[in-house]
Design brief:
By secondary structure, the protein is α/β, with parallel strands linked by helices. The protein has a domain of about 160 residues: FAD/NAD(P)-binding domain. It has ten helices and 20 strands. Strands 4, 5, 6, 7, 14, 15, 16, 17 and 18 form a nine-stranded mixed β-sheet that branches. The chain has a six-stranded mixed β-sheet with strand order 9-2-1-13-20-19, covered by helices on one side. A hairpin with a 6-residue loop joins strand 19 and strand 20. The two termini are about 20 Å apart.
Length: about 425
Amino acid sequence: MKSQKPPASVAIVGGGVVGTMAAYYLNRAGCAVTVLDKGTIGGGCSHGNCGYICPSHVLPLAVPGALTSTLKTLFAKNSPLKVRPGFALRNLGWFLNFARKCNRRSMMATAVGLQALLNSSRQLYDELLDAEHLEVEWDTYGLMFVFQTKTAFEHYAKTDHLLSESFARPARRFDADALQKAEPALKPGSVAGGYLYDGDAQLRPDVLMTELRKLLTNRGVKFVEHAEMTGFASEGGKAIAVTTTQGDHRADAFLVATGAWTTLLQKHLGGKLPIIPGKGYSITLKRPKVCPTYPMIFEEHRVAVSPFASGFRIGSTMEFAGYDDTLNRSRLQLLRDGASHYLHETDSPAFEEWWGWRPMTSDGLPIIDRSRLHENVLIAAGHGMLGLSMATGTGKLVQELLTDATPHLDARPYRVERF
């Protein structure tokens, strides 16, 4: 149900990249915007990820065969994907729904929804950075998928063919010698080949969040930190204020963009919001003397590297362990060990050791839809590992839905009723 008129004011709960990008587009549309966060702006999963803007990541985690590989992690000691058995049992419905999606038909349907947001966001990032002149360590070298063994390298050719034929995402294929020549940071003899997706890009996410906050503050957007949402005050089926630990904040419309926390707020939003936290890690180091040119994903070890202008980041892994807020150093070591198979230098001291909760839906698509309790409350959450990659497209779509503008893409794949 759409609102009667575009809102003059919007309160956004959640100061990550999705909420902040929505603030940008709403501010441009003339709305008075306040962004609230239970912690610090950009301090959650938007802070320490690998910074990829990657339309190549159009396939969800739920692909044929994913269930078998997930079950194996229950017993593996050092698997990049780790599921704690107790957590799986407590969230059995989520994992059963994930299992039902591990087929080609569901995979392709989900990929269509992901592609729309990924392609939109990639174009909107170009427009945003060109219009606002944000210094975010942006580069467009692409993203290189690197393989250690010939078997894995040739097997990935099927995936590349699918991406090329169905989603217009062809890669440049490099054999071992060509890859070694293109990327001297790789150890001699360490790789069988790779695939480069030229349309992908990279930025430093924490720098982006700092730049966005500065820009929006100068344009009148208010940011309130350490304001945890406790509910809504409502009248006649509409929210009139979001209640927080720092008092009530009134507005004409509201956005809840709280990432992995969203499930814990579902009693205030209506309906089931099956989002679980998938814990990811990263280590940020000084740039090595022999630093990679390309952002790279080492597929067989599920490790990603990001060569920023101001540092070097090793990240990834996935740990389903609930809202566990401890820093698991064995997971950090897994990142270093994985990267060491390929790169000359991975053992320098860390500037930062980080973890964050990715908001994972069972089908891999985000939820971008109105609350069932309040017609003027919108939800934008569940972007999984692609929050940064889909943030601009999501932010623009949020603005269009809240202001009754014509959406620039079909919003139906992201409706909550699919669950």
